[in-house]
Design goal:
The chain has 2 domains: 74 residues, Muramoyl-pentapeptide Carboxypeptidase, domain 1, CATH 1.10.101; 141 residues, Alpha-Beta Complex (endopeptidase fold (from Nostoc punctiforme)). The chain has 8 helices and 8 strands; from the N terminus they run αααααβαβααββββββ. It starts with 16 loop residues before the first helix and ends with a strand.
């Protein structure tokens, strides 16, 4: 197998999507117990890197270098998500909105235990507090979580309110344009059910390929089939 050149040697103190990729690869290799799922190279990652390097009879210098990358890559420890994260780091261009949405979605999924569900006054926590990864949007509901994904990816507010900390499924369904379920791509919003006020009961964001990321309970954002609910009502596109 021909191993591509590592974008950069990773060491403690660095941040970036490639750090996620290396954490995923090490976890797949059985070295994930001390990892913290943020895009930062901290003490936990350094510990696992050195443990892995010692096992493979490499100097425990705390670095993810070309030699280490080659062994992990050759053993197919980098899955599709990790490869995507490395692509973000290697891109010479500013990451596109869909790549940023994808990265934000996976970040939220990885830290899902820290994103609490609320329909109270803190529900727009991510937007109101200007949260971007590796900071965590601590309190969200379904629509505010979808709004945050757009916000942290640099896209216009799907509520068309300029990210003023307001909005819900009713303001989302009134914007964008409708597309068919079969056309759903990354970033489209998927609406379910109808409430007593005429607004959808729930919204999730399409990840494409028939999957969505949905934040609808205290279990945090989950990756689910788009038709995980029987009351799918509409798919709308905003960019």
């Amino acid at each position: 197998m021909i191993v591509p050149k590592l974008p950069r040697v990773a060491r403690r103190g660095m941040k970036g999507p490639d750090i996620y990729a290396h954490k995923a690869a090490l976890s797949n290799a059985g070295f994930g117990k001390r990892l913290v799922w943020t895009p930062s190279f901290g003490a936990g990652l350094q510990y696992e890197v050195n443990a892995w390097r010692r096992k493979h009879r490499l100097r425990a210098n705390g670095l993810i270098d070309q030699e280490m990358f080659g062994i992990l890559r050759d053993a197919r420890r980098y899955g599709p998500f990790a490869a995507h994260q490395l692509a973000l780091e290697t891109s010479a261009l500013k990451p596109s909105p869909d790549r940023l949405l994808s990265a934000a979605s996976i970040f939220a999924y990885n830290v899902r235990g820290s994103i609490h569900y609320t329909e109270g006054s803190e529900r727009m926590y991510g937007v109101r507090n200007h949260i971007h990864p590796p900071e965590i949007p601590r309190y969200e509901d379904c629509s505010s979580f979808a709004t945050w994904l757009y916000y942290t990816s640099g896209l216009p507010d799907p509520n068309r309110r300029g990210y003023d900390g307001q909005g819900y499924t009713g303001t989302m369904i009134d914007n964008g344009r409708q597309v068919s379920v079969n056309e759903a791509r990354l970033g489209d919003l998927v609406f379910y059910g109808w409430g007593f006020n005429g607004a959808p009961k729930h919204v999730a964001m399409s990840l494409g390929h028939g999957r969505v990321i949905s934040h609808g309970s205290e279990s945090g954002p989950l990756l689910l089939p788009m038709r995980y609910r029987s009351d799918l009502r509409a798919v709308r596109r905003y960019f």
